[in-house]
Amino acid sequence: MKKNKKEDIWPSTLKITLKMTVIALFSGLALGLKIAFAFLPNIEFVTFILMFSIIFFRIEVGFGIINVFCALNMVYFGVAG
Length: 81
What we know:
Elements: H1 6-9, H2 12-36, H3 45-56, H4 59-77
């Protein structure tokens, strides 16, 4: 009898939904912490969250978080140029 791997238990649509949810939550958390702690100098929660996401999650989720955070940052603060 063939044993199921951990990846075989969850269907692919649930994996995609989980990745999208993690990307949305961590991007929102990074932006919220940046806005909440903007008045304190040298407090870098955003750098910690982005480095943590690259180390803890897979590289595609980490880069997704970074891309969504940068897009939200440009929408909220505007694009300098």
